[in-house]
Specification:
The protein is of the alpha/beta class. The protein has a single domain, classed as Alpha-Beta Complex (Spore Coat Polysaccharide Biosynthesis Protein SpsA, Chain A), CATH 3.90.550.10. The chain has a seven-stranded mixed beta sheet with strand order 3-2-1-4-6-5-7, with helices on both faces. β2, α3 and β3 form a beta-alpha-beta unit. α6 runs parallel beside α9 and α8 packs parallel to α9. The chain starts with 8 loop residues before the first strand and ends in a 6-residue tail after the last helix.
């Protein structure tokens, strides 16, 4: 599966006002792990129009670390930022992961071997959601019921921000997304639960092979999650994806 003169792994990291995480040396964690691997790799940090010093700090980091790249995008929210990065990535395998490294980069050791088994997509699954407050766990339980009832998605955890794709699968999925596109600017932070649901629903419609793998995860206390608002938004996103499917917008 590894090819000479080609990038084997691309890691896409969306970034919005990440000064706190950057000061915690999260990119050093990524670099220190990847530099020890025997495959070629690149890391794309996609800045979602941050209003703090995120871009400046990442730029300083990429100047000092080989194979790290910064892409500055207008503020369009996490979903559009991830899409932009996934479509820029050159790797045969493309992973997107969160800047805070709630799922550590070393969990790739559980993800990558699955691609040798004719799998197109491997998604991380958080077992127990260590450290997550009760309200977050309740949200997850309720959302899992809704996503199965509305979209018939069979996965235990659709929302883990640690998902890897074969390049061809990534290209077709992220170009077909309708609810979440990378051409609409927004205001403020936006963490959309429906983004992961739409991409997995498209994968299912395309008959792509998806494998769910347990990964380590620890709650990082992000202030961007609003339990009530995000639950309502997630429900509306579920309905939008279902309506798009009924109208034939995800046809091959």
């Amino acid at each position: 599966m590894k090819k000479k003169n080609k990038v084997f792994l691309s890691v896409v990291i969306p970034a919005y006002n990440e000064v706190s995480n950057l000061r915690n040396k999260v990119l050093d964690e990524v670099y220190n792990y990847l530099k020890k691997q025997n495959y070629s790799w690149e890391v794309l940090v996609v800045n979602d129009g941050s209003t703090d010093d995120t871009s400046k700090m990442v730029l300083d980091f990429v100047k000092r670390h080989k194979n790290f790249y910064l892409y500055n995008e207008p503020h369009r929210g996490k979903a559009a930022t991830v899409i932009a990065g996934m479509l820029k990535a050159k790797g045969e395998i493309i992973l997107f992961t969160d800047m805070d490294q709630a799922t550590p980069i070393d969990q790739l050791e559980k993800i990558l071997p699955e691609f040798d088994n004719n799998v197109d997509i491997v998604i991380g699954s958080r077992s127990g959601r260590e450290g997550a407050p009760l309200v977050r766990r309740a949200m997850a339980a309720g959302f899992s019921i809704l996503r199965y009832l509305i979209l018939r998605l069979p996965y235990k955890d659709t929302q883990c921000g640690f998902k890897a794709f074969k390049k061809n699968a990534a290209r077709v999925i992220f170009k077909k997304m309708k609810v979440f596109r990378n051409n609409q600017q927004i205001k403020g932070s936006a963490v959309k639960a429906g983004f992961d649901l739409e991409l997995l629903y498209i994968a299912r419609k395309l008959s792509l092979q998806v494998r769910e793998v347990p990964v380590k995860w620890h709650h990082k206390g992000t202030v961007r999650v609003n339990p009530f608002k995000d639950s309502i938004d997630g429900l509306f996103d579920l309905i939008k994806v279902r309506l798009n499917s009924i109208m034939g917008k995800y046809k091959i």
